Amino acid sequence: MTRALLVDDKPENLYMLRMLMQGHGFEVEEALNGVEALIKARHKRPELIISDLLMPEMDGYTLLREWKADAGLREIPFVVYTATYTEPNDERLALELGADAFIVKPQEPEALMKRVFQVVDATRRIAWPARKPVAGEEVTLRLYNEVLVRQLEKKSEQLERRIEELTRSDASLKRLNRIYAALTETNQAIVHSKSRDALFSNLCRIAVERGGFAVAWVGTMDAASGKAVPIASFGAEPAWLTQHIDELHELVPGQSPIEIALNEGRICLYTDADTDAALKPIQEGLRRRGLHSAVAYPLRIGPHVVAALKLYSAEKEHFDDQLQALVTGMASDVSFALEVYEMEEVRREAEEELSQLSAELSRRVESRTSELQAAYRELETFSYSVSHDLRSPLSTIHGFTSMVLKKNTDKLDTGSISMLERVKTSAERMAQLIDELLRLSGVSRQELHLQEVDLSEVAGRVVDALRQADPGRQIEVRVAPGLRQMADPGLVRIVLDNLLGNAWKYTGRTERPVVDFSAERMGSQNVYVVRDNGAGFDMQHADKLFRPFQRLHGAEEFAGSGIGLSIVERIVTRHGGRIWAESMPGQGAVFRFTLSA
């Protein structure tokens, strides 16, 4: 197995070469520079050395000279493998110093190994002995110095280019850092600015103070003149800015950067104002102000361009791709803020309009309520007065009719007696209606006194009173226990008197009458239920149930005035509740009501 010594100051290069050599059957030893290589070679002779040229402590050329000067090493073939020294004179120097092969990195693995095997095989056959130095010491040193000087010059040029690149990179980095700072402050301004105009003013100031731009302004399009009009600026006097806009518009009507941004909705860039032919008449003025490049960005609300941001720089070619991307992001952030302002303005206008409508509605409701209350009071007073004033003539009619019948029964014929009886009955009916009307009026005027009421106990007392008044009735009445509610106890008694009384009355012709009082839950509210299996009614006429003096059954079927359910509805409504009914003829009725108070 051929033993090879590999010399390179880069571990990654050694690793790649070692793996290649071992893969082709070589035993490998490594060294990081010429000094280490000589020590290892003198300790244990290799059969081949492959060395880089540019290395610390001792470079490849010096190692080659020392190698060929050493009697124990000079016969071992020396292969130069370099990526730095690639000029013809570099190869000439290596061969003058006795190198057996000069190979330029990188090489395809097979091509490299083919060249290595050629060197090894030639040396073993003694057909191609290891090369000895060709030129004398003086010539070699001169050539070596030329190579080193040339290499130093090349490195110096590379270093200068690198410094220039780093300088440009540093300037670009500073520009980017300024833009990042401007972006950050712009986002803060978006949050804290109270209006669109305030945001535009802050944006221009931030672009100059933080972003490093020479001038910044925001403009909109004046439809009448077709020119851009500044609405916010920083870094330039208003008079100069107006003059500059006018000059640009005259030179390139509709084609200045900001006009293109406003009219066409696209970014427009002048990378070097000094060489742009269209700007020639105003180039001197721009140079005097130190303005050498400019860009304009459209600002949008949704798809519509509403303004444009114009930025001037004191540097040529200032707006590179990275900078443009960041400024585009800043313009996008401002456009988003404009959309938010627009929505906020719409919301505020809607709220103001709603507030005005609400105030007007409240005024109308208050006025209408006052009118209704006045009309209601007048109606109540009128009803009470009419009812009260009718009592006296009705009492007179009823009294005189009774006296006539009592004293003259034997003198009157049957027809006359019948007519007088009808007058008497009608007077009694009218008196009953007046009493019911007064009850209805009283319920409406009565003040509510709310307290917790045991509705089960009240219902029980109502049922007891019904049984005492009609002891012959056999009727099953069920009252759910523990039903309690905040209500006016007197008015609740009237409600249950009427509802349970109706259930008692309308089951009068039912074979096995049943009346039930219970409660159900509807969401968070109690719904109280009075149910019976009596005569029922047709739901087509349900709208008449709670109207005063409206009846769904004739007086010959079931007695009554038709005012009771009207009183019930008024009481329930005054408690903030509602009442409704379900029924079918011959199948009973169900009345449900709530008492929200």
Helix proportion: 40-55%
Strand content: 15-25%
Which regions are unreliable across 5 or more consecutive residues at pLDDT < 50? none
Number of strands: 17
* Average pLDDT number: 82
What overall geometry do the principal axes of the alpha carbons give? Answer: elongated
Secondary-structure content class? alpha/beta
Terminal Cα span: 108 Å
* Helical run tally: 15
Gyration radius (Cα, Å) is 56 Å
Major sheet description: 5 strands, parallel
Largest sheet strand order: 2-1-3-4-5
SSE layout and pairings?
Blueprint lengths: L2 E5 L3 H13 L3 E5 L2 H10 L4 E4 L8 H10 L8 E5 L5 H9 L4 E4 L4 H16 L12 H56 L3 H14 L5 E7 L6 E7 L3 H14 L5 H8 L3 E3 L9 H9 L4 E9 L2 E10 L7 H88 L5 H32 L5 E4 H15 L6 E4 L4 E4 L1 H18 L7 E9 L2 E8 L31 H11 L4 E5 L5 E5 L4
Helix pairs in contact: 2-3, 4-6, 6-7, 6-11, 11-12, 12-15, 13-14, 14-15
Characterize the structure shown.
The chain is α/β, with parallel strands linked by helices and 597 residues long. Helix content is 54%, strand content 16%. The chain is built from 15 helices and 17 strands. The strands form 4 sheets. A 5-stranded parallel β-sheet has the order 2-1-3-4-5, sandwiched between helices. β4, α4 (88-96) and β5 form a beta-alpha-beta unit. The mean pLDDT is 82.
